[in-house]
Specification:
Elements: E1 2-6, E2 25-30, H1 32-35, E3 39-43, E4 51-53, E5 74-81, E6 90-91, H2 93-96, E7 108-112, E8 130-131, H3 133-141, E9 146-149, H4 159-168, E10 172-175, E11 187-191, E12 202-204, E13 208-212
Parallel strand pairs: 5-7, 6-8, 7-9, 9-10
Antiparallel strand pairs: 1-13, 2-3, 4-10, 4-12, 5-11, 11-13
Helix pairs in contact: 3-4
Length: 215
C-alpha cells in the first residue's frame, strides 16, 4: 500500500503572492441554479502558491514549461532537513555537505525549513531562510535535475542571480512546498507535474509525496 502526502499550498480567491505578481482570483462563473452546473474562472500567476519554474522564467532562450523533461520533477527525491534554520538565515554549501554523496547529476533535492507555517502572513514572502549565491553555484556545478523548497523563492534579494545560476543550468525549481515535516524519511517518491502551458515560464503544481507503507 502507498500513502500520499499533499505538499501543496491552497489556491483560493485572494491567496497572497509577491506584490508585483498577478493577483489570485477564483471567481464563480455559473452555478447549478443558473445553468445546471458549477463552473469557475481562474486568474492567477504562473507562479502562484506551490509552483514550478522553467528555465524560460529568467533565461531568454531557456526551455519553456511544455519542453521540460518531467523526470526532473517526478521521481525519487532527497530531503535535506534544515528546519533548525531561523528567519533570514543563509543556507550555505556547508548545510548540504552531509548529503553530498546523494547530490549528483540528475538528482532531485528538496530542502525543508518549515517556513510554510508562516503562510499566508506578509513576512512569508520576505523573511525566510535564503539560498546563498555560493550554494546555488554548488548545486549547478553538480548538475542536479531539480531543487525544491518550502519557501516562496530561493532568495528574496539576490533572486535574479540565484535564478540565473539554477535555471541557466537547467535545474527545475519547485517553490512554495508545504508540510514537509510530515515526512519521516529523507528519501521518497515526489511528483510535481506542471500544467502543459505552451511557451511560458512556469506553472502551479499539485506536489505530492508517495510513501510506501512503513516509511
Amino acid at each position: 500500500m502507498r500513502t500520499f502526502v499533499d505538499l501543496s499550498l491552497d489556491i483560493y480567491h485572494g491567496a497572497p503572492t509577491f506584490a508585483w505578481d498577478p493577483k489570485c482570483a477564483v471567481i464563480v462563473h455559473n452555478t447549478v441554479d443558473t445553468i445546471g452546473y458549477n463552473i469557475s474562472q481562474l486568474s492567477m500567476s504562473t507562479h502562484q502558491g506551490t509552483h514550478l519554474d522553467a528555465p524560460f522564467h529568467f533565461v531568454r532562450d531557456g526551455k519553456t514549461v511544455e519542453q521540460l523533461d518531467l523526470h526532473k520533477c517526478i521521481g525519487e527525491t532527497l530531503l535535506v532537513d534544515l528546519s533548525h534554520k531561523q528567519a533570514k538565515a543563509p543556507l550555505t554549501v556547508e548545510d548540504f555537505l552531509p548529503y553530498e554523496a546523494s547530490i549528483v547529476p540528475g538528482a532531485r533535492v528538496i530542502y525543508r525549513t518549515d517556513w510554510d507555517l508562516q503562510f499566508p502572513q506578509p513576512h512569508y514572502f520576505s523573511d525566510f531562510p535564503y539560498m546563498t549565491l555560493e550554494l546555488a553555484q554548488w548545486l549547478a556545478d553538480r548538475r542536479i535535475g531539480m531543487i525544491g523548497m518550502d519557501v516562496p523563492t530561493p532568495n528574496p534579494t539576490d533572486y535574479d542571480p540565484v535564478h540565473h545560476i539554477l535555471l541557466g543550468a537547467e535545474i527545475v525549481i519547485v517553490e512554495g512546498l508545504a508540510r514537509l515535516r510530515e515526512l519521516a524519511v529523507d528519501r521518497f517518491f515526489f511528483m510535481a507535474a506542471p500544467l502543459k502551458i505552451t511557451g511560458r515560464d512556469g506553472s502551479p503544481v499539485r506536489a505530492l509525496a508517495m510513501l510506501e507503507d512503513g516509511e
